[in-house]
Every structure is written in structure tokens, then in C-alpha cells.
Request: fold
Amino acid sequence: MPLDYSKPLRVRFAPSPTGMLHVGGARTALFNYLLARKTGGVFVLRIEDTDESRNRVESEAAIYEDLRWLGIRWDEGPDIGGAFAPYRQSERGPIYAEAAQRLLASGAAYKCYCTSEELEADRHEQKARGIHATRYSGRCRNLTAAERAAFESAGRAYSINFAVNPGTTVVDDLIKGRVAFDHDTIGDFVVVKSTGGPLYNFTAAVDDAMMEISLVLRGDEHLDNTPRQMMLQGALGLHRPMYAHVGLILNEDKSKLSKRHNTVGTDQFRKQGVLSTALINHLALLGWSPGSDREAFTLDDLVHDFTLERVGKSGSIFNETRLRAFNQRELQALPRAEYVAMLTRAMQVAGLMEAEPPPAAQRWVETFIDAYGEEIHTIADAIPLVEKLRNEGVVVPALELERLRNREVLFFLDAISQYVDSLSELRDLPLSKTIPAIADEFRIKKKDAFQAVRMALMGDLHGPPLPLLFPLLGHDRIMMRIGQINSHVLHGRGLEPIKYGPGGEPFQTIQPTPPPAPATDKGSA
RNA sequence: GGCGCCAUAGUCUAUCGGUUAGGACGUUGCCCUUUCAAGGCGAAGAGACGGGUUCGACUCCCGUUGGCGCUACCA
Reply:
């Protein structure tokens, strides 16, 4: 039966602060958030920091930062409180202690005095006997009063274990459907460590119930944990939320996303300058589909269109290339001013622009976007391009240098540099006419001319239109880069830096070179 | 090993028994362009396998295979 969206849902996202928020977590948070907004419900952020050894203090802040960046806001959480505070499990000790006592008192749980060595030995022994279903033997479950007293007086530490009784627990999962678990396949499990620290299944079960979560939506890695949590809630007489387990987001090799494998961290994309709108859009389409060919969705669109019924069961691989394609689309859709501001900021961060860019610098950025804007998939792509434009010199591949060792080409380039030198403004040059005209003087083909200029200026045969490239480089760099070619080539030939006239006859003077009178439309520039 | 989940192109997905199996990313051809990118128009590319059920299965059932998850005093 479909979920009733007319009733407000209380949902939660419960990360453990053991690393950055990876994209799988981000999607889980997103789906929960969408459901809360859609139903006018509440989105709870709970921090599951019960594993002292793995917690990292900075992780919690990092998770906040990533969620905020994504535009996912929570209504209750550690930092803002709420009716069911505290929201950090490390601060909920008394609540778990009380629940554990009730479990003990009712006989639903018992104390286990086994040491970890004994447990380990048990497992070995079971394996040796060919039993691969290595579960807790339950040896402490039926301790006699005398045995128990002996352990107690010996001061042995104990864990609190939940006693799993025969039976079946059925999870009516909103995504996976009805899944039945035979208790025979679930061994007694520890709920409180011998150190007194509560464990995941216990805290999650208690908190989901006590925080009155109505729907638990999480990764399907937790599907097998669900019967344990439901048994716990049953034994404690607590209410049970509905459950929905969504297929995992996987690495390229189909393995589970882990926080240790540095890739696919939400922060990584944020720092690359990926737009949160693009990530949200991409994440939403991993596991959810609108049922139509539409694929551009804002967060608000998703609040409106998202339903659990259209969430798929299978896992999916996170495809970064597709994210970049989405991001490029978002970048193109951005108002120009915003794009300029974003790029300016990125350049400032990279130390490529001063904090208070003068108007000329702003204009430069605008020209840059005209030139390269549409090929940029993420803002980070722009930085190496900017650096290449800003560098004093340029590296021309040896092979290409060889092609430039041609007196006509050299002279042509020199003519270009003189042409540029004669101009006071490099914007809006009619280069598509000027360059062929000058090239014609030296009997160079149009295509070769453009390529020679491109190669001399950028060390590359490809790039944006020259009329945009010229103002981007500016007078000095153009002069320098073409001059560099001349000296490189000549040096390579062991020649003096002399220059050639149109007919091939060497000029006598090194400097100044007489302008070879570019044939046409110099005046229009 | 046991238990559970999953299974349409390289990837994300649509299809809810009858379709030329649709879309997107990627790949690729052409157009545009001095070039590249972008854009436009095309192309190639999929129901893991085997049994059923049915007039008819990608779709329902069973099995096999494969992938993943759980099986921790991690979450």
C-alpha cells in the first residue's frame, strides 16, 4: 500500500561522525528531507556517535556544512535542539541505561560475562567444526544463579545481550516489500558493551521510537538490522516506525561506498565548484525516477514530485561524468552575473585575482566566460585555463615548433605581433578578416595562419576564437609569446635573430623591424 | 558457509502481460566553426541464463549464475 502523503511524516537522517558525508549519505538525507517537506512533516538530524574510537570531532561540523550547502535543512538536531533533545547519542546515556535495565528486568536481555578471548575461541571452535554460521553461542544466557554470582563476585565485566527467541520478524518495507527473517538465523546480539557503551542496533531502535520517527528511510545495508531493531522495540513496548530501504550508491567497482576511500565525498564536489543544484539533481535520479523523460529537477521540484513509490530497489553506481554534465547544464543556465561572480571567487581562492578586482579584471572574467564558458563542466576546470592564459610564456611542443620553422610563417607571426603592437585596444578585432589578409601577404593558407597564431600564443592547435583570445592575453603576452617563438626557432637553427622580408630577403637590422604594412582593415580596429 | 537484497545497453533509468523496448551520460557520424568546445541532427548499444504460467512475457512464479549487504562488545 502506498504511503499516505497527506499526513506529516517525522523522518530522520542519522549519520555517524566518522568521516565526511559521502554521496550515499547525502542522498539518504535528501530523500528524508523531501518526504518531510512534502508532507509538512519534520526532518530530524541525529548524530550517532556511540563509537568513541571512530568518532572524529571535525566530522560533525563537516556534515552540517555539507548538508547546508546542499540546501537540506533540519528541523531538529544537536545544534538547534527540539522536543526530543538531546540529538547526539553520546549525550543520551541515561535513556539507553534505563532501556537496558528494563530489558534486563523483563528477561528480554541478559548479562554476558564472556571475555573477548573466550568469544574468539568460540568462533574458532565453531569454524573448526565446520559451522560457518558463526554466531554467539549463547553460553551466558542460561547461567545458573551460582555461576552468575561467581562471575559477579569475581568482578567480571559484562555486556548486555538481547535474547533472541524463536519466531519470525516480518519487515513490511515500503521499497523492498515484505521481507521475513527467521530468528534462527539471528543470534543473540550485544546491546550494551562491557564498557557500558550502547551499540548501534540498540540506540537506533530506542531513538527512532522515542523520537517518534514515523518512517525510517535508510540505505539497504540496514535491512538485515531491521528485525533486530524491531525485536528491541517490541521488547521495550515502544512504537515501531515504518521502514523503507533504498538501494545503495556504489563505487565504480560496485563496492559499497566507504568513508575511507576518499572519493565521492560531498565536500570534494563542493570544493571543486560543483553546484549543489547539480549534485542534488544527480543524486535524486540515483534510485528515483519521475517516470517521464524529464531530468532537470530543482530541490523544490523534487519536494513536489518525489514519491517513495518511484524509488527503485537496486543499487546504483555513482557516475561522476554524468554529474559533470549536469553541472555544465546548470552553469549554462546561471545568470551571467552569477557565473562571473562564481568564477571570480574561484580565481581569488586560487590566488589568481585580488580581493577587490578592478573593473578591467571583471571585464576579463566576462571575456573568459565568453571564450571558455560553455566548455567548463565545473568551476575547477577554469583554473588551469586561467593559469595558462596568465603565464608569461607558453610551451610549444617540439614537433609543432618544427612546423613553425618556416620563414614565411615566422615572418607572418612577426607581422601579427607588429599589428598587435600597433593597436591600443585588442577587443572586438575583426581577426577573421585581418589574419587571412596578413597571411595572404606571405602566401600562407588561412587555416595554417590561424593555427600558427594559435600555436605561438597557446602552444595548442585548439582553443577559443582568436578575437576573444587576444584581449584575454593582452598586448604584452602576445608580444612576448610570439617573440619567444621567433627566438626559439632561430636559436634552434643556430641562426642569428634576424628577420625576413616578404620576399625572403633578410632585413639588415635586428631591431626595429620595419612594419610590413598589413594590407587591409587595420584602421577598423 | 548461513541469511537477506538486487538483476533492462559501459553507466543512471522508463516499461507496472501485447511497445519498432523510450530517455539521459558516455561512445560515434554529419552539420556549424580557422580549430577545439558548445550546439543541432543522426548512429551503434540492453531485457544474465534455464525452466515454467499464459493466446502472448523484460514484465508473474521457480531454479541457476552473478553482484552487493548483514553475519562485530563498527555504524
